[in-house]
Structures are given as structure tokens and as C-alpha cells.
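sorry for the late reply, my laptop died twice this morning and i had to redo everyting from scratch. anyway the thing you sent over, i finally got around to it. pasting the sequence first so we're on the same page, its 328 residues, then the predicted structure underneath. double check i copied it right bc i was rushing
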Amino acid sequence: MSTLTRPGATESAAPAKARRLRGLAWLMFRRHRPALLTCLALIVLGGAWIVYERGAMLDALHAAGWPGKPADALGGNVAGNASETLNSFAGNLSFLTTVLAVFVGAPLLASDMENGTARLATTQSVTRGRWLLAKLGFALLLVTLTTAALGGLFAWWRGAVDPFVPHDWLHDPTFDTTLPVFVSFGLFSVVLGITIGALIRRTVPAMVLTFLIGYAATIALDIVKDRLATPRRIAFPLEGARPAALDHAVLVDNWVGTASGKLHGWGTCVPEAVPEACRAKLGIVNSVWDYFGKDQMAGMQWAASGLLLALAGLLAALLLWRTRRGPF
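ok and here's the structure:
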């Protein structure tokens, strides 16, 4: 007689491990994982490069006798090489904002609109507004972390060798790569790229146009820099030593002047056979400079950052208004 046996209770399947990221956060991570990993690689590799270059520069300067010797007393071209290295690295670093705008900003919405992913995502349980805010927030957070990390490390390097930082701090890349300007310009550039991508709705044309307009924006920033503060004016004897106030100052304009304050062009009397007699006849006794002092640098940086963040906010508002109402 056969005996019916009840099959043993099967082991219940182990519950799936809960994801730490849920909803839109998980979607942003999955959808933009290449951009996230690329920015992490930029932080790690760029940070390692900065640490290495800083150590190598300090070793070379210490071997040449600095800080026991002043920077302008070092033998050979040590000071010039250090200044050129800092300037070159700052130029490469400032280009990062354009790279982020082209490869993170421009495709962010353009690729989804071109491939139909945007329509699919916004017909599910998430609203269009939440989806747009999640995309924008992800991009801005990624750019902020990248520029803040690299900008902070570069500031650490630059602070260790401050006497060798290029003197024309306003027009060299030094100004653009200081932390507040670097981060704010990165945010503005990426929002610009996102807006262009949303309007064009094609990835490759949006990337090309973002590069061109981003380059134009860097030129516009260079023009605006001289208007971020009021230049100071100083007069000192024509043949006398230059005042200490002009150390690390950025020249805006200069003249020669009389004791009463009347100004003449810098080349006045230079072509004359006897320039001294010409100057004596005109009463010229002073050199007169309009300049930005090094102590004005921080205020000008924050003014530039405020302007860039305001422009980024306007672009973001335009982007949200346009994409929430326009067709996908």
C-alpha cells in the first residue's frame, strides 16, 4: 500500500535586498551613471595630478632656496617656471566648465527628448515637473561636487606657493579657477547647456552649440571683469620707486601728471629730443596709475559669482517654464 506523503515545505525565497536608492534618485543614477562615473574619475585623477604637481613644485622651490630667498632672487628661471606651470594648469582647469556643459548639460534633456525617453518617463507615475527638477538637481549637484573638489585642491596648491602666482590675477586663468567663480561658472555653463539641449531637442547639435556659446560666455566674462569693482588711483614721483600698494596689482590705465593733477598720455614727451625739458615745460612730475589691488580680488570674485548664479537661475526658470508647457 503506497503511502501518500506531503511534500516538505519549500524554503521561502529570500526577500530581495532593498535598494538604498528609490524612485527618481535610482532612475537618475541608472540613467546617468556614465556621467557620474566620469565626474568621479575626474575628481580622483585630477586631484592626484594636483597633489603630485604641488609636491614637485615645492621640492623644486625648496631646492632653489625658497622661502629662505625671496621669489625674485631665485637663480635660473625657477620662479618663471613655477608661475608658468600654475598659469598653464589653471587654463586647463578653467576649460573643465565647458567640458561639463557639453557632455553633461547639453545631452541631459536633449537625448531623452530625441529618443522618446522623456515622453515615456513622464507618462508613468511621476509628473513632468518632478522629473525635470530631478534631472536638473542631479546635474547641478554633480557639477558642484566636481568643480568644488578640484577648485578647492587647486586653491590648496596655489596658497602654498602664493608668491609665484601670476601677477595679472584678473585676466589670467587664476581668477576663473578660484573656488567661488569656478563653481558658479560651472553651474551657469551646465544650465546653459541643458537649456540649449531642451530647446534644440537633438543631442549632437546641442553639444556643438553649447561649446560655441560657452566659449563666447568666457569671452564675455573677461570683458565684464573690469567692471566688477571701481579701480583705485595712485600718483607717485615719475622717477621714484613704485609704491608697495602696486605689488600684485592689476594695471587698468596709466598716465603722467602734473602736481596739480592734470593728466597727460603716458607717451607724452617721449618722442622729444630732450624729454626732460618737455616734461619740465608741461609741469609733468608724477606717474598716475588706475589699478585693482590684490585685496579687491575676493570682492570681485563674489560679485562675479553672484552675477553668474543669477544668470543660471534665470536660465533654470526659463528651462522649467518652457519644458513644463512645451511638447516632449
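Residues 232-294 form one domain.
thats about all i looked at so far, will dig more tmrw
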